[in-house]
Specification:
Blueprint lengths: L11 H11 L3 H21 L9 H10 L22 H11 L4 H8 L8 H7 L13 H10 L2 E2 L5 E2 L2 H8 L4 H14 L4 H8 L5
Antiparallel strand pairs: 1-2
Helix pairs in contact: 2-3, 2-7, 3-5, 3-7, 4-5, 8-9
Length: about 200
């Protein structure tokens, strides 16, 4: 794959081609690609509240690629391995590196799950991923991780309010609730009703 060597950020067309290459079926492509496009919409809506200075192209690419690892969790019958879903981040990271994309892009895959996974989380929860810290480091990574919390690939897919996500994340510890609250304070809340109407999906 060839990218712009000045920025090492792939174009939208190149990103869509990667989805088409990795997706095991049209159904999988539709689910994951649509989710990534929605996360991109969310991230771009929140960009103005980030304090400026963010790399807009990097945020867009990270949003559109963050979930490519999900494709590696589909079985031959088109079902996602939910028990190992937490692996989709590291799987996507490896997939993008193998495809020739830079670390700065691949990190969006492994750094967006929840509000960040620490090595302590991996050990305490016996997660099926290598023991390491999978937490956002750059402002762009924080924004994409945060935007991702407002949409879910459930059946049917839904938008998720900040209040609903706060309840969901509580089961992983009060520290996760506090971390999400800090992100809300930093970036604000997106206009979910507008996006829900555009994509014809409900809000939970």
């Amino acid at each position: 794959m060839t990218v712009d060597h000045r920025t090492a950020v792939p174009s939208d067309a190149q990103i869509r081609a990667l989805h088409e290459r990795f997706a095991p079926s049209r159904q999988a492509m539709r689910l994951v690609w649509t989710h990534c496009r929605i996360v991109c919409d969310l991230a771009e809506q929140l960009l103005d509240r980030s304090g400026g200075g963010l790399d807009v192209a990097l945020v867009r690419a990270g949003s559109l690629l963050h979930d490519v690892g999900v494709y590696r969790l589909y079985d031959a019958h088109g079902r996602i391995d939910q028990e190992n879903y937490v692996r989709h981040g590291v799987l996507g990271h490896a997939l993008l590196r193998q495809a020739g994309l830079p670390e700065s892009i691949a990190r969006f895959c492994s750094r967006h799950t929840g509000v960040g996974i620490t090595r302590q989380d991996v050990r305490r929860q016996s997660l099926p991923i290598p023991v390491a810290d999978y937490t956002a480091g750059t402002a762009e990574e924080h924004l994409v991780m945060y935007a991702d919390k407002f949409h879910s690939k459930t059946t049917p897919p839904t938008f998720v309010s900040a209040a609903a996500y706060s309840v969901t994340v509580r089961r992983f510890g009060v520290d996760k609730v506090d971390r999400f609250a800090a992100l809300v304070e930093r970036f604000g809340e997106p206009d979910l009703p507008a996006l829900a109407r555009r994509h014809r999906q409900p809000i939970t």
